[in-house]
What we know:
This protein has 2 domains: 6-17 and 79-212, Rossmann fold (3-Layer(aba) Sandwich); 19-76, no CATH class. By secondary structure, the protein is of the alpha/beta class. The mean pLDDT is 96. Strand 5, helix 10 (186-189) and strand 6 (195-197) form a beta-alpha-beta unit. The chain has helices at 19-34, 39-42, 48-55, 63-76, 85-94, 107-116, 118-123, 141-150, 164-173, 186-189, 205-212; strands at 6-9, 98-102, 126-128, 157-161, 176-180, 195-197. The chain has a 6-stranded parallel β-sheet with strand order 3-2-1-4-5-6, sandwiched between helices. The radius of gyration is 17 Å and the shape is globular.
Amino acid sequence: MSKKRVVLFDFDGVIMDTETIYTEFWDDQGKKYLNIENFGKIVKGRTDDVIYKKYFTDHQHLIPLLDKEIDHLENTMPFNYIRGAEEFMLHLKAEGVKIGMATSSNNRKMEIVFGQHPRLKELLDYIVTVDMVSHPKPNPECYQKAMEYFNASPKETVIFEDSIYGLQAARDAGAVVVGLTTTSTSDEIAYLSDYIIPDFDGITYDTIREFLD
């Protein structure tokens, strides 16, 4: 009997190269409204609601404006694959590997993404958005939910993540954790990662077998 292998991906900064855009957006908001430098790095991997609750409790009047700006950003931003990501997923699919995604993005944003990239939706066997969980990352609920769907144990699962909060969620889910240096340095994510890669160039099914065996 062949060994079960499940691969789970974060979305922003792992499948698609979007984190730079979000970092610039939140950097601007931090300077404008909170007098905080490098705010984008501070909140990287956090949901909008968590950011609002932690940093904008005294600026409630700004939240509708920020929501509107985020909606505009996500409706107009380019969604470009991280190097090698699409090819890697196609390769996994051809090998019969189950592929899931657990993202802090909401359903509305993902519909925009799938409108631009319909094949991505076809590649994913299961999708967990922030709208489907009670506790967002760094809580491991999203990854636990995906593993439960596939009836896979943590030892049968590889998770690809980039942000500190996402990596913490993956680590606490008990899976093999692969950190991408798309948004953080290798030194910053080393303590949360079993393996570290710059992108998916050259990553294959055999790589997954090595990670799990």
